[in-house]
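Practice record 12: protein with PRP.
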Amino acid sequence: MTETLEVLLSEEQIRERVKELAAQINRDFAGAEVLVVGILKGSFVFLADLVRYLDIPVKVDFMDVSSYGMTTESSGEVRILKDLEQPIERKNVIVVEDIIDSGTTLKFILGVLQRRRPRSLKVCTFLDKPSRRRVLVIPDYNGFSIPDHFVVGYGLDYAEQYRNLPDICIINTEQDSE
Ligand code: PRP
């Protein structure tokens, strides 16, 4: 199998956009404290960059949920593998994702968190693939909307590889001819 990578979003483009998103959050939550909740694992790079441009008081926590197979996608069955370490009642929560695809994962997470009565609950995603949506989820903060390509880098993986790339790249896989 040969894998080729083509840059879709450069490190510089990403840095500028992350700064803009952080500026929006700084404005929207001026004078308040936020709890940033990263959804493992893909969000870790974006979250690390985003929080360094926030100038409001910030706490950070993480959640991990099971990815679903084809059978569970339609039913929206997702399980919590790692929960938050703190209650979120009356807190301003911003869920940070690397990408929204079908929306299944995020819809589940938002349902779980909403039941815990936060003061506010927002979504900040680095990438959005609106053409793939199966359930209604609209991010409050969105880095880039992209077409339906398989992308890697900046936290996103292909078979657990490429999360460390500084750019977002389209990955093309080709069977080697013999
Ligand atoms: C990805 C991504 C989202 C989810 C989006 O996670 O981080 O959580 O899939 O897909 P959806 O909108 O169709 O639910 P993944 O399961 O690849 O795990 P990872 O972040 O650990 O790579």
